[in-house]
Amino acid sequence: MSFITKLIVCFFAGMGAGLGTGFAGMSAAAVISPMLITFLGMPAYEAVGIALASDILASAVSAYTYGKNKNLDIKNGFVMMVTVLLFTFVGSLIASKVPNSTMGSFSTVMTLLLGIKFIVRPVMTTKETMASVSPKKRLIQSVVCGILVGFICGFVGAGGGMMMLLLLTSILGYELKTAVGTSVFIMTFTALTGATSHFLIGGVPELLPLILCVAFTFLWARIAAKFANKASAVTLNRATGIVLTILGAVIFLVNILS
């Protein structure tokens, strides 16, 4: 396959993944994997490895940008991250004992529904409202949500970033910027764990798509995160909703083509 074809596919895959990460803490795997599989004919395991590797820097730069603007809850985010990682393993272990229990369209459907939700019913929680919740209650909520996200991610195999955003805004009552900042902070470490596992088991994937996807996802995540942190709550809700709805529709079409 020609260099130009790979460049174009990786550019659009990286752009979609970067915008999803920077605006909504969405996992790059939801966008990059189906595009690499469909348009480059790449093996699924290799495509997921590239997507996870792309997620590391994109989530890290997004987390840094949100943290710099004081839109990141590191303490509770760390608690949730540890719980997510632990229960992802538990979910995977149980899923391996159950025949054909995966739900491939889970992440796509969640992306579409969340996009529509942010447009129709925006998250308008303020930091003052967030601060009114007791630290003990917030800690317990973080553990419970981490268990739920981790187990479902391990069992289903998708939906981590979107599930975290939904739970952080709906259950933990985070305002949108802090929810996204905390989500990408967690995703940095989950992506690092996932990418390392993939590379150790399956070896390093083809270098050109790997480098291109990592670079383009990083670039667009940086742009999206900088815009998101300067935007008003209303603008950010609309932008996030539009990006997620478009990405959900595109991923759905790509899955049909594949």
The average pLDDT value, as a whole number, equals 86
Structural Rg: 17 Å
Which series of helices and strands comes N to C? HHHHHHHHHHH
Query: Uncertain runs with pLDDT below 50, 5 residues or more?
Result: none
Sheet of most strands: none
Helix content: over 70%
- How does the helix and strand content classify structurally? mainly alpha
Structural key phrases:
258 residues; single chain; mainly alpha
List the helices and strands and how they pair.
Layout: H1 3-24, H2 29-40, H3 44-68, H4 74-95, H5 106-120, H6 127-131, H7 135-156, H8 160-170, H9 176-202, H10 207-230, H11 233-257
Helix pairs in contact: 1-2, 1-3, 1-10, 1-11, 2-3, 2-11, 3-9, 3-10, 4-7, 4-9, 5-8, 5-11, 7-8, 8-9
Give an overview of the whole structure.
- This protein is mostly helical and 258 residues long.
- 81% of the residues lie in helices and 0% in strands.
- It has eleven helices and no strands.
- The radius of gyration is 17 Å and the shape is globular.
- The mean pLDDT is 86.
Short description:
With 258 residues, this protein is mostly helical.
